Amino acid sequence: MAKRKSRGGEGGHSGKKQKTAHVHEVPTSEEVYSGRQLRQLLAFEQDLRKARHGLQSFKILLDSIVNNEDESSEKLQILLEFLESVKPKERDDEVPVYLPEIMETWNMAAQLNNENVMSAVAVVLALLLRSISGNIDLAPYGLGICRTLLQKRQQELLAKNLSADNGKDFIISPTLRLLREALCLDGGALAAPIFRARNNTFKSLARNMGLRYLGEGVEDPKRPSVRTNAVRFLLSCLKLLHVEAKRDLLSQKDIVAALMRHIRKDPPSLIHEILDTLKASVILDKKLPKEIKIRILNAYSLIRIAELYGYPEDPAENEDGSNGERPSVEESAHAFLLAACTDSDAGIRRSEHGYYPEGVDPNTIPSGINDDQPVDFGIDSIPWMNKFENDIPVRNSLLAEFIQTLRPWSSTKQNELLIAIFESTPELIAHYFCHRKSFAFDPKLSATWIGYAALLYNVVQLPIPAWFGHPRTYARIPPPTSVVLGNIIPLPMTPKAITRCFTIKSKLSSFYAIRLLTLTLQKLGQALEMHREASLSSESLWEEAARRLLDEFYQRIPDMKDVIKCYVAMDQDDLLQRQAASRLLLLYYEVIPQFALRAKFDVSPMLLSTIKKVESSQDASEDVVMSLLELENLCAVAKYSPSMRWFARTSDLPLSPFTTLLRVFVEKTTGLSNESLGNVLHWVASEHELVDSRPNSPGLYPLIAALRSLESIDPAIWTFLDNCAERCARTPVKYLELIEEQLEKAGITENEDAVTCPLMMTIGEQIPYFVSSSPSKAVLKAFVQLLSEYLGHSLAAGVSEPFLIATKDLFATGFGDQKRLRAKLCIPDRQSSTHEAQEPNKHTTATTNSLANGAIEGADSDSIFQISADDLEQRLSVPIATSKDSSLSRWTSKTPEELVEEGYASSLIRLLYSEHSSIRKEALTNIVKMAAKIKDSTYDNNEQVWLLLMELAESARSSIADGPLPSVMVAFACKALEVLMNPLHCLYEKVNLFLTSGPVWPLDKIPLMHNILQDGPTEDGAFYSELSWLLGFLLDSLRTTADVALFHKRKVFERLFALTCNPFMGPNLRTQILRIVYRMTTIEGGSDTLITRFGAVSWLLAQRDATADAAERGVYQALLRRVWETCDQKRISAWSKGGVERFLV
Predict the structure, then answer these.
(1) What is the average pLDDT value for the chain, to the nearest integer?
(2) Closest of 882, 1001, 1003 to residue 952, by C-alpha
(3) Which helix (H) or strand (E) holds 517?
(4) pLDDT value at position 489?
(5) Are 28 and 4 within 8 A, CB to CB?
(6) What's the alpha-carbon Rg for the chain, to the nearest Å?
(7) Maximum separation of any 2 CA atoms in the chain, in Å
(8) How far is it, in rounded angstroms, from Cα 876 to Cα 1035?
(9) Per-residue pLDDT at 856 exceeds 60
(10) Whole-angstrom Cα distance, residue 820 to residue 805?
(11) C-alpha–C-alpha distance, residues 340 and 771, integer Å
(12) Is the pLDDT of residue 538 over 90?
């Protein structure tokens, strides 16, 4: 049997459901030449084919306008003519409906389920709003169309389009574009009403954000998917909505989850939009509370964004010039995560206490049973000290969960992100490695292991937070040892793993291990120094904690013998490794000497071989520099080695190690070796009494300066000096006695403060033997020059002059009958030795820095910036809000939403303090009518607004004929109206409680002042927000002398001045108080009242002296001057007996 044919048209019903979900038919159209023709085409038709014909013709017209085609100006004129012809007339009893014919067509299509027309209407309206948004003259039409869309009937049509089946992209996408155009029109003028209608305008938004592009290749930007349109609509909401609406929007978990669910599969342009908008409108929005940011930037969202690392991008997509400088998706995601996870002010990071775990009190020390005689149980008496070996509670649990999902060993960007999080939130370091059980550091020479090693290197390199994370100063109790140790040497760095790095045949693994241990020891030294600083101002707990830290650290590092074995086995040409290993050995001795001395390391063989290597080098290449660095480290190690023989010669070296080092220091000086080798030489000379060991002794520096003054030094001279040093070190007492003998022969009394030098006595004793060895004349000449320079630099360095004169005579005696040489011997004038040239510079630099710091501190604490009267007015003067008489009639044509949210109600209320009684009475009558209109409407907060207006009317009714209503009542009504507009306002509950407490407001009281200042805030952490609202309310309440009298009666300024004693009060709140004081000075008699009744002069002086900022001090001084200039100076001068004038000088 044959099937029956369908008899209905496009708008008719068939007797049987069709198998195909939808049949797309190409619509017909015609060219539009006038607005009248367009109006006829868009007239309501029962035949939806004709309606679609008109909509398609309108669409073509709008396309040409949007695309700026050649005839766009003529088309725009047609559009303007059409909009003017269909503009509804404003009637008091009716809400205007724009484009009623199109709305009727849309309604009929929805009833008949004609999807083509439903889609066409949305397309046309979206294009129309887009055309209007580009022309400011058409903005009123656009706003009217948008308000029509927000009427209940059109809201239901929008909801029907948005909730279409999943495959109906051609309906959903245009509707989302329409909503986005309406939202963005005129800078988001109707963003709040669109959000209030979210039951319809946000219908199926979460589902629509899941309808992503499923085709092959990349999504076409000109034909965005449903998800792209839905996401862009949501992002526009985040940009344009106010804070409270944004808070409500971000609290919807399904929308937030849908936004992030498919971000990895989105096109690059959309990902950039998402990240840029979230960063600008969420992360950097300081008005948005942190708990709301965490709702969208939760662990799920952060993990999804982190999946963008390694996002595949086609280079061809960035060849366009517009996107040439745009960062990649990976870079944008990295920048976003850095801002979200590390910025405590804007991001989701919460304040923490560094190495102190969450929940501990580091300033509470338990005592014995008898409080009069507390018992010291030591660090074991702290109940929480040993609780954090396996788990560490943290305050930033969200970040702790997120970082566990990162793979920093496989991505450089993820490594940078994790290190940045650790640096800003140190409490997470030990926690991360406690829970990262799969992190294995056993060397495998793979890319993963290198990533592990790089991460550990960066972690250990992080600095220790000031005072271990405790605010302002060290706490009474040190942080748990396990936490400190976990930050110094992370758990994966086990002794077994590090020892394996030394033993396997890989230079890379041993180098990483050496560098890691070096950083670890440096960080340990810093931690021990901080423990010592804390123990100076606290109990002995810090000393005990330092000892425990050392004991546990010994168990976590390899034995020094393993490091020595690795160092000895290194190739002599592997200079980088050898320098790093020698540096590590030195740190063992410097930071943990007790642990290092157990190894009984003899450094002499390695020191001698390194000296030979440096001596044999002929150039100044990088290899020589690395060898010098290694030599410096070994020399420093030799200082700690008890078996080191500094003056013993070997068959390999003609000179002793000490003299060889002196020769290297003089002849092969570099910027790297200067300080370290010089310190070692000075230490050896002092220890073996070659020079005077007192603090003011110049040590070896005069000898070094003399040696450097010679062009070349003969080996015979070096041998002579080596012999003298060895003799002096072997029998120092002999030469100390010789010094006394020389002083007695010269008839010089013993002076304990005189600086002498035993080495000079040894040189004087050995000169005859040097001369008898028959050196050449050139050598003797150079030798005499050396001795003269030695004497001259010693005198300049502070060595006793009588001693040097006696020494010169001793030197001359040594030359025997060689009169020429004796004649050339002298004590020349020298400016300063190398030692003195360095030390005064350090002192001068320190002095200069000290003076500079003192100058800066003085400027901050004593100086005052001069601020003119005009600048003060610009800072503190706030214009007084006024209303025009036209407000009496303008409100009648407005909707309730516009009355409340666009300020028409506030303008009408302000007429109650008009000077003319007729205006006040007319305003009171209109307020009652407005209240009735709002109550009968469907406005969300109609009951509360009606109650506010009626209570205001009843309070003003009895006194409105006598004079203006007190400014406090008017200002409170306007401010309370702003609170009622936003149910999420921190004062919403208190305002409603006040309104329900009584039908009439007392005119001689200030509403809510006592509730805000004396009672606690309604919400946790909202005290300063409530205080900011109160200060703004009080500023608006201060206009006339009657207001001054009320402020005096209710002791307002006493309360305000007391608020500034709060050290946590922000600068913005303090500025608001100063604005109230400034407003007081603009009122007749206000300055007199401030001085005589409120003590404003003393308060301003106290605030000026309490602040350290010179600019703020200038503001207080200028305001004090303003108070004096605006008061009755003759009366105040007599009242204060000239005291006020003295403060102005």
Answers:
(1) 83
(2) 1001
(3) helix 507-536
(4) 92
(5) no
(6) 43
(7) 149
(8) 11
(9) no
(10) 19
(11) 79
(12) no
476: CB partners within 8 A, 6+ apart: 362, 363, 364, 365, 538, 539, 541
CA–centroid distance for 1066 within its chain: 19
The Cα 356–Cα 362 span in angstroms is 8
Rounded to an integer, what distance in angstroms lies between the CA atom of residue 362 and that of residue 379?
12
CB atoms within 10 A of CB 218: 11
Question: Who contacts 851 (Cβ-Cβ below 8 Å, separation ≥6)?
Answer: none
Question: Which secondary-structure segment (H or E) carries 629?
Answer: helix 622-640
pLDDT for residue 1126: 92
Quick one: pLDDT at residue 325?
A: 67
pLDDT in tens, 890-903: 888 888 888 888 88
Residue 856 makes CB contacts below 8 A (sequence gap 6+) with: none
CA distance 1125 to 1143: 13
Chain-centroid distance of CA 841 in Å reads 37
| Amino acid identity for residue 703 in this structure | L
Q: Which whole number is the average pLDDT over 1006-1022?
A: 84
Give the residue carrying structure tokens 């006595």.
Answer: 761
% of residues, the chain, pLDDT over 70: 89
Residue with tokens 């048209």: 9
Please report the pLDDT score of residue 426 as a whole number: 92
Which amino acid is located at 738 in the chain?
L
Report the pLDDT averaged over residues 621-635. Answer: 80
Give the contacts of 554 (CB within 8 A, at least 6 positions apart).
592, 595
Q: What are phi and psi of 924, to 5 degrees?
A: -65, -40
pLDDT digits (tens, 9 = 90+) for 3-36: 444 444 344 444 444 444 445 567 788 888 888 8
CA distance 929 to 249: 34
115 in Cβ contact with 165 (< 8 Å): no
3-state secondary structure of 547: helix
Residue 539: what pLDDT?
Answer: 58
pLDDT in tens, 664-678: 888 765 544 556 777
pLDDT of residue 522: 93
Q: Which of 745, 841, 739 is nearest to 800 (CA)?
A: 739
Q: Residue 820 is encoded by which pair of tokens?
A: 């020429």
Q: Which residue's structure tokens are 């969200």?
A: 398
Q: How far are the Cα atoms of 654, 682, 693, 698 from residue 686, in angstroms, in the given order? A: 23, 6, 5, 10
Residues 713-734 as b or e (16 or more Cβ within 10 Å = b): bbebbbebbbbbbbbbbeebee
Give the integer Cα–Cα distance in Å for 350 and 47.
63
In this prediction, residues 1118-1137 reach a mean pLDDT of 89
Contact 980, 943 (CB under 8 A): no
Q: Residue 759: enclosing H or E segment and its boundaries?
A: helix 758-772
Cα–chain center distance at 63: 47
Q: How many CB atoms lie within 10 A of CB 252?
A: 16
Residue 1127 to residue 1124: CA distance in whole angstroms: 5
Smallest CA-to-CA distance from 425 within 516, 490, 335, 355 is with 355
| 953: nearest Cα among 984, 918, 991, 999 | 999
Is this prediction's pTM over 0.85? no
- C-alpha dist (Å) from residue 782 to 411, 667, 711: 64, 16, 9
Please tell me the predicted confidence (pLDDT) of residue 1080.
93
DSSP sequence for 403-433: HTT--TTT-HHHHHHHHHHHHH-THHHHHHH
Question: Residue 847's pLDDT is what?
Answer: 31
Q: Are the CB atoms for 764 and 739 separated by under 8 Å? A: no
Please say whether the beta carbons of 359 and 488 come within 8 A. no
Coil/strand/helix, residue 335: helix
Q: What φ, ψ does residue 1065 adopt, rounded to 5°? A: -75, 130
The two three-digit tokens of residue 635, written as one number: 């020399």
CA distances from 900 to 196, 555, 920, 980, 1007 (A): 14, 71, 20, 9, 21
pLDDT, residue 372, reads 45
The pLDDT value given to residue 414: 92
